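Throughout this chapter, every protein is written as a compact record of paired, labelled lines. The reader may check this reading against the record printed directly beneath this paragraph:
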Amino acid sequence: MRRLKAFAAQAGALAMIGLIRALFGFLRLLGPERSSDLGGWLLRTVSPLIPVNRVALANIRATFPEKDEAEVKRIARGAWDNLGRTAAEYAHLKTLFDYDYLNPDAASRVEVSGIEHFIALKDDEKPGLIFSSHLANWELPAICAAAYDLDTTAVFRAPNDPAIAGIVHEIRSGAMGGLAAAKQGAAFAMQGVLEKGGHLGMLIDQHFTRGVVVPFMGRPALTNPILGKFARRFECPVHGVRVIRLPNQRFRLELTPQLDLPRDAGGEIDVKGAMAMMTAVVEGWVREHPEQWLWMHRRWRPNMISAAALAEYDHTIARTPLFKAT
């Protein structure tokens, strides 16, 4: 019976891999624009039937209590549309980024603001940290870094399904630089990247059970402190990068100047303050384009915040982000 179950599981995984490869092959035939439109239409249409849509609606209502129900549902539909487009665009990751900073006026699908910061990171011979969020197609910054030979390792969370995870990793590997899975022991590998003068890119807008409590969209949220800890240890540049989905299947990448992170009485970077400032940057991005963010994630989990952490929670810590002169 155990052998039969193992065989069935293996057969199921192989069938799933075949199905996903066939689907991606079909999307490649469609081209990036029509694939994006199809993925957006599909998830936008079926989203009311997806159970986790209730999480998205609840998150939006709590964040924007001033918005009526029609606007709440519009934002949720936009978020599903963006997720569907992003999923379909995985079939085209190798060719999606076509910006040429040596010829910025050339017609392209992608435009980049702050490319000079990418170049400065490449040439400063220092380690560096780049944070981002699940906005628009969040895979594009890592592709941009690889396109300009910026030694960057992207920290990612693998999909739960092993078949999907394997194919996504295969696609990412062909389009990006280094990859590091967010799992137990990953911090040592990430530290090794920085010790060698490399750069780390990481999404910081998801719940992290063992995180620090900082304000996000007006509520306390557990946030992974690893970038704040690395910034403190290595005293390296920290930048934010976001992607904005534009009309006609186009994108804009925006890389911020270096953040001027808060410091403690001893002059060292304050970890919680650093994460609060990075999170405040992300909050500004989300408020500007709420329909492009991943509202389906259970970002706020107050029942997982200890009483002691909640008692120490400072809602005023989300100060206006400061940037160093460039």
Notes: The chain has twelve helices and nine strands. Strands lie at 110-113, 128-132, 152-156, 178-181, 199-203, 212-216, 219-223, 238-246, 250-255. The first strand starts at residue 110 and ends at 113.
